[in-house]
Amino acid sequence: MLTQASRTVPRALPLALVAALAAARVSATPRPPPADTVRGSVTDTAGHPVAGAVVRLADLNLSAVAGADGGFQFAAVPTGRYTVIAYRVGFAPVVVAASVPGAPLTIVLRPSVLHLAAVTVTATRSAIDPLTSPLPTAELSGEALRRYQEVSLAHALDGLPGLRTLSTGEQVGKPIIRGLSGPRVLALDDGIRLEDYSWSDEDGPSVDARLADRVEVIRGPASVLYGSDALGGVINVIPRELPDGRGRSGFARGAAEFYGATNNDELGTVLRAEGASGALGWRVTGIGRRASDFHTPPGNDSTPTGDLYNTRFHAINGEAAAGVRTDRASVMLRYTRYGGAYGLLDGPPVPADNVSGPLRRLSDDRMQLTSEVGLGAWRLETRSQWQRHSLQEVSDQSRTGDSTPTFDLLLNTYSSDVLLQHGGGGQASATLGVAGFYQDNATHGVVPLVPSARTLGGAVFALETTPLGRWTLLAGARAETRHLSADSNATLKLSAQTRSAAALAADVGAVYRATPRLALAANLGRAFRAPTLFELFTNGPHLGEARYEIGLPSAGPETSLNADVSVRWQGRRVRAEVAAYRNQIDGYLYIAPTATRDSATQLPIYRYQQARAVLYGAEAGAEAEAAPFLTVRVRLDVVRGQNVDTQQPLPLVPPPRGELETEWHATGLAWAERAYLSAGEEIVTRQLRLGPFDTQTPAYHLLDVGAGLEETVGGRLIDFDLRVRNATDARYTDFLSRYKGFAYGQGRNVIVRLSSGL
User: Fold this and answer.
1) b/e 722-746 (16+ beta carbons within 10 angstroms → b)
2) pTM for the whole thing?
3) How far apart are CA 189 and CA 12, in angstroms?
4) pLDDT band at 544 (very low <50, low <70, confident <90, very high)
5) b/e string for 486-510 if b means 16 or more Cβ within 10 A?
């Protein structure tokens, strides 16, 4: 795929490259007074150094690891005020403000077993305390990310309040946020949009969670900063910062991870090397995963048991990145790949499916160029990307290359964002931005699901966050326009046509810090979503659903108005949040039956229509240190969706869910520096409000158990994790599984993971 990608020259990247090189040239011209150094030490409450603590200079995307004496430093930092974050497993993260020039910092970490997020950057595009973010946020990072990461990003995030997974087996998952999924949930890679065929149930976000340092989630609309599709929320996969070699000797280091799973004989490995010398930093990561068919628990005559044929997969993912930093500017070039092949079921599985059943081939290649330039009190940031996303489906002879794929789609997207940012470090912050993109979809194969088409779009936006005593206020707005040009297609009965659309988004929010530990938040946001090519122009049989589907070429953008309120508490031994929301979507696109049949196939005809829809619900999560050795976590979420025009429930709205987890942990053991044992019960009720095409499934509960330890061996930190999913091998049917009509969920699965340096 590298050879194919190199034939297409990204249109947006050269402009960004010129800007980045110009910025670097500026940094080489006569400079203002010499930059200073941010230095300090990290200790525990007894004054002992905390070696291995990670210290981040959030505003400049720099990180360092505290040495044996707890010391750290960042060289060549321009004059200004910055946000510094320090954290380590077993301690609560600490956020402090640093000034340059300024005195050395002494950061004291307090022991804590709670999973606390220090800051979030996705909510405002600059570092902010999650307690003071008007937008509800969640995070998966560190030890939790290592334990729960899977080949599917959605499955890894499934345990967060308000997030669920629309699954196609264990290898494909589409995230659901507050009852919305597909093109209504936006995925980002380091703040840059991921473009894919989100209308397809078998095409999830093309990013591997193991490339992430952390994954941040916004629950609720976020179109002001990120544009179309962010009606339900945003998922931002944030990679590790590149190493910084300034002020120290050059170095290189490596890390590795190996894992295996028993249910589907899954094996995987992660290998990473990184280093820095002076201003240059680099990193290379490779990820390989393969699995056989997965197993279900014992069943009955109507539901298959044992192997689910044609659910095997393999994937090769990874990244290569290099960047240069000076005291005023930074430039990074990053290539990422996500791809592989996975089998699908289109009905009850039979052994022949492993030879002739549907097989999806996915290849996603991205080249990103980012830069940051200091302009006094302001920062200029550019983010550009070329993404090549290929999706094919083959079956029968086409699996061996003897015939044309059933469908063959290729999406090339070129995008650039330019941001001008001011403030931070606990002060008022502002973000001004312009964004543009060009997208080309090429359709091949026997079945043209959508026409070949091109889309051109642009936007301007602004966001301001202001602290006023105990209050934090947020306001922002965005204006976006798009122009679509679709080619004629005889099979789809489509003539060549063009269409243009414009949309406005806005957001206002407020947070009141009643005490340093208690925050009350409210937010009102307007978001939008442009219709997909499939919703506009599909015109053909959908055999998997036994119907003939026709799009709505006149469809306009979906627009939503979302209101949510939340109460947050973050104390020394308890962390908790309760949130409630109402999201009204005008122009909601859905498919409905007609009274006619297609003359050629005799399938009933279904047409896309637009209506008003309303979703409302609540989510809650709490984590408490019940004893010095015991942590208890509780999560609850419920959502209700209604098509107001038809007075019917919306389809595939998740049923209510609750989770209870306990974890025993200890440090300073004779055989390990740190160890844990955990057990969690997930309880999912029946969905009583069934929408069109829904099938009711019974309530169920699943038991997960885990254990792990951390120990230094030969000077390297080693992590060992053991996790048993569905430990009792319970027989259950997931309402959100696309296989629920003919197969149970996955049976007992024992996952063993060994990591070093990751």
Assistant:
1) ebbbbbebebbbbbbbbbbeebbbb
2) 0.88
3) 17
4) low
5) bbebeebebeeeebebebebbbbbb
